[in-house]
Amino acid sequence: MSPRKQPSSLFKLCVKTCISLINSACYVIEKSYPENQFGDCEREAYALKCHLMSMLPARLFDVLCLERTCCQYRGDPRIQLHVLTHPKMTVFRKCDLDNGIPQHFWIQNLPNFTRLVILDLKFVCTDEILQIVGSNCLLLEEINIVSKVDIGKSLINASVLIRNVSDAGLYSIANLKQLRILAMDSPRNERANRIGRCVSQTGIIMLISELPYLEELRIESCDIGATLITTVIDIGPLSLKKINCHFASGDGIKKLIKICPCLKELSVTHLSAHNKDAILEQLALSDLRLTRLDLSFFFYSDSMQRLLAVKGCYLTHFSLWEIEHSLTLEAIVSIGEHCPNLVTLCLMTQSKSLVTPRYFRKPDKIFRHLRNLTIGNDNYNIHSILTFFLDCTDNLQKLVLKYQTKINIDDTLLQLIQKGKLKRLNCLWLDCTLEVSKEVVKQVIQHCEHLQMFTVDFTEDISDVQKYICENNLDIKLGSY
């Protein structure tokens, strides 16, 4: 049976009670002054903060600030933040309610937080705020500077999004030499007309070349690898450990490895029909010791087998989106033999050859450490392939099955349950094409002792299943499409 919900810890209850009491005091203070006396309101909030600082340890303010959304505050979030922030706090992450706070508030208060190590300013950040951060928060190791977004009108009176972070803001934080993780906006298209401020590829290159310990650059919808490969600026070696590259070539990957010799996680998407082997050969010849490798639109070739034979012993995560529809069980066995330390495996294929022969004998000691398995998309024999993997490992915790054709998998799940192969699962995600009866859903919940996330497409009324979960106080999220 899925685990039962546990009561909140005494610490969590204390934190929630503290925030509730502080919220009540803040609201009383706020309602005691009209809007034109906001300065007096701030002074009284500051007095309350000083009183709390005399009683509570500084590190507790980090927790109170992070958990402040557990109790909704009905008033102006600035008053609450005035009380919950502390000069010695090391972590600050804004919440959604903070998005409407005027820029002046951040400019006035951020200079006090000189001990910050983590700062999240997503959707409130501007060049002016970054200037303050760059001058005062020199211990930062992680920062999110995704821009504040305003809505304006273009020349043709259409609504447009106006961003507030530009290369000038990036220059301001170039002296944050301890930064290891940076999240920001994607660069503008150089040929596109934009309203407002935007960062450029040149500005990003300048910034990362100034940050000696930067390990991870998080930019949504941005080909970071191609940005580094195509730049005319002489950069590197960088400390970046995670890179995605969507328009790669053999020479490009060779240049990328030279720029980022410390890479640990690499994601490559190669849409072209040519030069795939050249990319794999460059990775095999390099000194990289990748722990994660994601390959999309590749196929299991001799070059890939050679790469895994050389580098597979370092991999803990491997993903292959295969396009030739030719993946075989022998190839999967080869992956298991060359990658003995895999914890996560994702195989996406439409190969009709992915079946287990009748008298197949599984090699010993492959996929023993596998905890997370994703397999799709079509044509493979679900029963035989699942049985193969679950015979290899007793540690599987997350299983994601994708399929494009409607098929009932009741018998497969029941057999795996009877053999005890699903008992360690804590997350099971089944595609909407995979039909599972209500009775089998119940069996899964009753026999998977650690299951807490279960996504399945319901074709019947499951109100009695939900009632069973509620009555037994089970800690499981049962979802559908």
From TrEMBL:
InterPro entries on file: LRR_dom_sf
Gene Ontology BP terms: SCF-dependent proteasomal ubiquitin-dependent protein catabolic process
Gene Ontology CC terms: SCF ubiquitin ligase complex
Protein's name in the database: Uncharacterized protein
